[in-house]
Write a structure and sequence with these properties.
The structure is a single chain. The chain is mostly beta strands. The chain folds into three domains: 61 residues, SH3 type barrels; 61 residues, Nucleic acid-binding proteins (OB fold (Dihydrolipoamide Acetyltransferase, E2P)); 59 residues, Nucleic acid-binding proteins (OB fold (Dihydrolipoamide Acetyltransferase, E2P), Beta Barrel), CATH 2.40.50.140. Strands 1-6-2-3-4-5 form a six-stranded antiparallel beta sheet, with no helix packed on it. A five-stranded antiparallel beta sheet has the order 9-8-7-10-11, with no helix packed on it. A five-stranded antiparallel beta sheet has the order 14-13-12-15-16, with no helix packed on it. The radius of gyration is 22 Å and the shape is flat.
Length: 188
């Protein structure tokens, strides 16, 4: 058990029966009335941001969350199969728990967040950048555009489609940002 005095960014708590992380908080002592704490909480199951106000000194249930390294093995009709990198234990996850799954290729290293008390997987996160090969893109035509920020669609080796600059050609490896699915740079 903790109180609002123990709040800090990144603290994991149980809020209305759901695992949440404190993203932002502010202690407020108005001139009249009791003190309170305004917070922004991230629901760890679906990623939504919730705003809530706690009275100062309220008791809060903290939870134990662990991050564990896994490797993506393969996809089947039921979802995705992963292997723990240290214990070699294999687990299966449904498609709803994996963000940007179409940017993940076999052998990809990921990090999973587990609710330690229940051994339940909350999220599966790819690294911030992944390197993938462009399997198809239209060739650029010289003089197509006057601006330097012109983009075209490219299909990657995993089947994902993202926007890339005109100078990217088929067969090149590129670095892709997994948070916003944007082109990063060419990889040699």
């Amino acid at each position: 058990m903790a109180t609002t005095a123990d709040f800090k960014n990144g603290l994991y708590i149980n809020y209305n029966g759901k695992p949440c992380s404190i993203v932002w908080f502010q202690h407020v002592k108005p001139g009249k009335g009791p003190a309170f704490v305004k917070t922004k909480l991230r629901n760890l199951e679906n990623g939504r941001i919730l705003e809530n106000t706690f009275t100062a000194g309220a008791k809060i249930d903290t939870i134990n969350v662990e991050r564990r390294p896994y490797q993506f093995l393969y996809k089947d009709e039921d979802g995705f199969n992963f292997m723990h990198e240290e214990t070699f234990e294999q687990i299966h996850l449904g498609e709803d728990l994996v963000d940007n799954a179409d940017l993940m290729k076999e052998g990809q290293h990921v990090e999973m967040m587990f609710l330690a008390d229940e051994e339940r997987c909350l999220t599966c996160e790819l690294p911030t950048y992944v390197e993938l090969e462009v399997t198809y893109t239209e060739p650029a035509v010289k003089g197509d555009t006057a601006s330097t920020s012109a983009m075209k669609e490219a299909t990657l080796e995993t089947g994902a489609k993202i926007m890339v600059p005109l100078f990217i050609n088929q067969g090149e490896k590129i670095r892709v940002n997994t948070t916003d699915r944007s082109y990063g740079e060419r990889v040699k």
